[in-house]
Amino acid sequence: MDINSLTQSLGKFISLLLSPMNLKSGDFLISGPAVFVLPTLLLILGLSVWSFIWLFRDARKRGKNGALAIVFILITGWPLSFIWWFWLRPAADQNGALESR
Length: 101
Fold this sequence. Notes:
Elements: H1 3-18, E1 20-25, E2 28-33, H2 34-61, H3 66-76, H4 80-88, E3 91-92, E4 98-99
């Protein structure tokens, strides 16, 4: 492989990353260079999966139904409802025992 074909391949790859990308789901449209759209979507997906796993474990640790907590988050809308969980969840005292708020 010579240097010209390598630079052409690299140029095609960069132009592909910077080419416009439109993702439409219903009325929701994400448009922009693929280099920004794809990582943003993966970040949002990763954060939501991580928050669901953390929420499930936290609810079970505090004696609540983890599946019901996830249903609450899905019905009321992530991420605002995830913040509500921090406010409404049972508190733990200094010894690690749980007490309800």
